[in-house]
Design brief:
It is built from 14 helices and 20 strands. The protein is α/β, with parallel strands linked by helices and 501 residues long.
């Protein structure tokens, strides 16, 4: 597969693995609504935040939507959008890798971008997500009024690149409206109701579907299309008998009926018009309802995000936006009954996102609220990035809680997230037939000088029983090799055997 090369490519390929794991610290004064809500609004650099989420949400996110800086060389107030091309690629590549690792096997990612970087983004996304997982390039008609200067093209579209995590992803049909049914009629009073003519030609060459069709009058048969019919002879005979296929009056072609009653939805298209999913002007109006200060010049309308979530998610699925901007993705996900995580840097996490999402919880009626029947409810927690788990020397920092290190150990060993409500227990759990333990911060309540963080015969007797291979993390091990082998124990010394991967 062709690869894109830029100045710091080799460094960028390993950058995500070198980002330190940081803590996510709650800011209770900014929590809002339901105290049990799991939605997260995170303030901080999204590269660090994405790494911090890995131990808890790796492989758990159903849908990611991001609207990264477009590198348009126009000075945005909140984003440095005047990045040299290779710097832009260096910014995107490690973030895409971390986003990929957060996606569930049946998840998808959708990225809005303009012509400046769209084609380069496509190439690096092919590399990160796999070219076979490319879902399509949606063209969004974001503006309807001509703009710019004479002698130059007036830009009226952005791109939305879609990728799946694997073949397990299923694209959902969109809802039908009356506008999608205008081509259905019932001129022959078919008891099955309105219908339209469907294409009978195959798009691929199919030798086994190349057969001529005899006509009722016994005249010249209807020759097969150059690539064959869309159906076998047996299917043709059955549908002809059922009245689903009929001959034209001159017997020179066949008509296959597609019934409106059989259409439960519509297949998503790759051309999205402003009338259907909104414009940048509409998005600006939506944001203005919550904040008076200047904000991003290119917010996305709620209807655009709504359509993506309709195609890619279901109720209670987890949605992530690591370039949250003015909070649109989180607002739409909340109204549609999806769980969400939003990441935004700087003070505008508080000045832009926070007031908007509070209003959503309170039941604001802008955007898609009416179409979704939104009346308010739910809540979210506000988080900020804390210090790295490890210091520059690779040692565990003072003050790191058991839960934080347990989540890191579990993810480092299993590459799966530790459940957020997992019990605070020395036995972290079982994965693929292996039991995992962590001796840290006196978890066993041991009163000795080592606080129970050293694996000894006494500590071994106190550990919850597990019949099978065991991995035990601790500060040191006093057990002889033969005893470790007898009990099927692989000992890992913290912090030296626990890397900030």
């Amino acid at each position: 597969m062709p690869l894109l090369t830029w100045r710091d490519r080799e460094k960028d390929q390993t950058r995500s693995s070198r980002v330190p794991y940081r803590l996510l610290e709650p800011v209770p004064k900014h929590h809002y609504g339901d105290e049990e809500a799991t939605n997260l609004l995170i303030q901080g650099d999204n590269l660090d935040a994405l790494k911090a989420l890995q131990p808890y949400y790796g492989g758990e996110v159903k849908c990611i939507f991001i609207d990264p800086p477009y590198n348009t060389k126009s000075a945005f107030e909140h984003y440095d959008d005047n990045l040299e091309h290779s710097q832009w690629l260096s910014m995107m590549y490690p973030r895409l890798e971390l986003l990929r690792d957060l996606l569930s096997s049946d998840g998808s990612i959708w990225i809005t971008i303009d012509d400046n970087e769209a084609h380069y983004l496509k190439v690096i996304c092919d590399e990160v997500f796999g070219r076979r997982n490319f879902l399509g390039n949606i063209v969004w008609n974001h503006s309807v009024q001509s703009k710019g200067y004479s002698g130059k093209l007036s830009g009226h579209h952005n791109h939305v690149l879609g990728y799946r995590r694997s073949g397990e992803f299923e694209l959902q049909d969109l809802a039908r409206t009356e506008d999608h049914n205008v081509n259905y009629s019932n001129p022959d009073l078919d008891p099955r109701g309105p219908w339209r003519s469907g294409d009978v030609r195959n798009s691929l060459v199919r030798r086994n579907l190349m057969y001529d069709i005899e006509v009722p009058s016994g005249g010249s048969p209807i020759k097969h299309p150059p690539k064959g019919w869309r159906f076998s002879r047996e299917t043709f005979e059955r549908e002809l008998a059922e009245g689903k296929i009929m001959f034209s009056a001159d017997e020179k072609r066949i008509i296959r009926k597609i019934y409106l009653a059989d259409q439960t939805g519509r297949v998503p298209e790759t051309l999205w018009f402003a009338n259907d999913v909104g414009t940048t002007r509409e998005a600006n109006k939506e944001v203005r309802a919550f904040v008076e200060e200047d904000f991003f010049e290119t917010p996305k309308p709620e209807r655009l995000i709504q359509r993506i979530l309709q195609m890619a998610t279901k109720q209670d699925n987890l949605v992530l936006d690591s370039f949250l901007g003015s909070g649109t993705t989180a607002a739409v996900a909340h109204k549609m009954g999806r769980r969400w995580i939003g990441i935004e840097m700087g003070q505008h996490a508080k000045t832009l996102c926070l007031p908007r999402l509070k209003a959503v919880v309170d039941g604001e009626q802008g955007g898609i609220s009416e179409s979704e029947g939104w009346e308010g409810g739910g809540g979210f927690r506000f988080m900020k990035l804390g210090p790295p788990i490890f210091d520059d020397a690779g040692h565990i920092r003072d003050g790191i809680k058991f839960e934080h290190l347990a989540a890191h150990v579990w993810f480092a060993e299993t590459r799966t997230p530790r459940p957020s409500k997992a019990a605070k227990n020395v036995f972290l759990g079982e994965h693929d037939g292996v039991g995992y333990y962590l001796l840290y911060n006196g978890i066993l309540g041991e009163k000795s000088a080592t606080g129970g963080n050293v694996l000894s015969k006494t500590i071994l007797r106190q550990l919850p029983k597990f019949d099978g291979p065991k991995v035990i993390y601790g500060e040191a091990c006093l057990l002889p090799d033969e005893l470790l082998e007898e009990h099927e124990i692989a000992f890992r010394q913290t912090p030296y055997d626990l890397k900030a991967r």
